[in-house]
Amino acid sequence: MRTVTRVLDVSAAGLVLLVGVSGAGKSTFAARRFRPTQVVSSDHCRALVSDDENDQSATDDAFHLLHTIVDRRLRRGLLTVVDATNLHPHPRQELRRIARDHDLPCVAIVLDTPPDLIRERTRNRADRVLDDDVTTRQLRDLRRTLRRLDREGFRAVHVLRGPEEADTAVVRPVPLRCDRRELRGPFDVIGDVHGCRAELEALLHRLGYRLRRDERGRATGAHYPGRTAVFVGDLVDRGPDSPGVLRLVMGMVADGDALCVAGNHENRLVRALRGRGTRLAHGLRETLEQLAAEPAEFRDRVLAFCADLVDHYVLDGGNLVVAHAGLKEEYHGRDSGRVRAFALYGETTGEVDRYGRPVRLPWARNYRGRAAVVHGHVPTTRVEWVNNTLCVDTGCVFGGRLTALRYPEREVVDVPAERVWYEPAGPLGTG
Ligand code: CTP
Ligand code: MG
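# cytidine-5'-triphosphate complex -> structure
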């Protein structure tokens, strides 16, 4: 039988658990596909703490050491592979918890090697003596594991059935989607547009982008040789032409002329377009009405685009981070639910101010990171660096300005709003 080569995607920053009975070939698999320092083996840890990798009485100490190594490596965002049987739910959960503590994904690779081959290998092993009933018990644990692994919270579960699949499988480390450090710019980071299509066109024109239009005169793209626009999210809601903004930005992203991160308003729009119950407040009703006048095909593309938006980007070798509501340093280049929540909504105290707006924690004032963080979300009247962070939301839809930061020049370019499109709930902040 011909075996098709399996390509196993794992996160280039994150944890990989090998799963399999003793003799399944885990250590052999790991040695052929990962660098020695990437692999943390329970047997090796057992040897380090007891001088004997078969000394089962050293198991607790060995796993203590293994967890420490995994924790320190994941703190650095390094790809880390755990070579242990991982046949029991609790130890797997412990390892996933470490990955989650560092906001990194965890992937399982299961070696489901046939029992006859396991027993044959075990008999021939010089490095390990195993009772047959240990093997029998582990094989039973593996069946149980295979039944529940999909529901345990792994980002992916790859099961390799048989020795051929295991021998030929290729592991492909894939960078997290937020990791675009290879993009060096220069960039034009553009603040919250909120449906202000005319102002966006004017700003792009001022920045030197050449706009492209369709036969009906609608802007469908904008290009500046060598430069990339980066939208901080909140393209939609409150303003007069959210579909027009989406058409332009979606065209720019498709052409490689722009990147865009998700804002909280895109998030709500996705919920609404999927028919999930959500309050039609803060301009969402107007956006849905505007979109209702568009063909269904356009709405489908809008939904696909908004649902696919990444919550932040790390750019320029790690020197620039763009996130809608900003991002504290420990979350840069990480991928988890709480990273996404912070990037889209920021950290709030749970209280509201006298205008009914959430009270925000001043993450920027405590920011000490190396990367410049450029964000939007909270409209301000003054564009001002705070500890290497900059808010470029200058409340265009509230009659303020639409602002871009040229990076690395650190030059601010803006255009005034044509009018007040939406009354703010209270006065805009001053940064
Ligand atoms: N082996 C093999 N061909 C493979 C994989 C493994 O012949 N494709 C042999 C190895 O040479 C070794 C035995 O099978 O003698 C067990 O392989 P190993 O990779 O050590 O298995 P592990 O799953 O790591 O077993 P343990 O849990 O006991 O460490
Ligand atoms: Mg081994």
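# post-check
Residues 199 and 418 are 7 Å apart (CA to CA).
Residues 59-75 form the longest helix (17 residues).
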